[in-house]
# Entry
Amino acid sequence: MILKHKLFIGLFAVLFLFDSCQISKDSKGTKPLQTIAIGSCSQQTSPQNYWQVIGATNPELWIWLGDIVYCDTYDMDSMRRTYKEFKQNIDYQSFIKKTSVIGVWDDHDYGLNDGGKEYSKRQESKELLVDFLDIPPDSPIRQHEGVYGSYTYGTADQQVKVILLDCRYFRDSLTYANDGVNRYKPNSEADNGTILGEEQWAWLEKELTNSEAKIHLIGSGIQIIAEEQGFEKWANMPKERKRFFDLLEKTKPQNTVLMSGDRHIAEISKMDLPNLPYPLYEITASGLTHTWDKERIEPNRHRASKLHVSTNFVFFKIDWAKEQPQLKVEIRNMKNTILEELNINFTK
# Structure
């Protein structure tokens, strides 16, 4: 009888400990998110020791903004090997053991330079990306076309929603400029085309409408605000860009900041939308392993920072202490030197 009693107590203790572990694991998503690092454009053949630099800032979350690897190919075995070798890198492995990772693609990890929906291997490429990112089998991202998705951290008045847009899978063709300076020019009014596709547009509106998050971070592989640069950007499809801004004004998500990669430079852009109660900033963080060969003048009427031509990443710090959250943005180089910082107070 005593033996049975001890066995029962022992079994109860094991079950209690197991249940406690499960509760602890599940409750991680309720902790307020305070530190985030973002970046893009990692040439896998270059040294990957920059992960030590980023890791030294102790981000709770890392957000890939595209060009995770450079693998322009129709050979999915080659792309699979590239992802596998990159993921097995000792510095990256050390980093992801202590930092949550989410992300979206741009063109070179999509598989086609400046590519859109014409890329015939887009579905196969998607499967490799979501596997690399360890997207759970039951995630909605695995159920729909494209790799767009949203992630929510924290609860109540300390909630952050990260929305990552797929600007490749559904994107229509661009118009070549052929002027010797610019690669592309805006599509015509009659043939504007789409970036997101109707299914993703409907999803995005649903994600933004009546969202309870206090901070919204919206990521796009290509720049949204910048207009003058002659490469890929939302401004190449003016109707799509206007539709995006109109949607923000319609849904009025609290405290929204845009994020982008692609350009191999870092900069901050800013614009005011008449019906949005705060200034809209875009943080471009691009060039983990490489940047421009030399500095050049590139106009951006919306630029609210210096143009930083160097390898870089961006670090966010969220201050929840006040009634209105504050977001500190730090552009850092690979010596972990702060090149520029901005405090976003979300008030006009």
User: Anything to note?
Assistant: The chain has one domain: 35-344. Residues 1-28 have pLDDT under 50 and may be disordered. The CA atoms of residues 89 and 264 lie 22 Å apart. The radius of gyration is 21 Å.
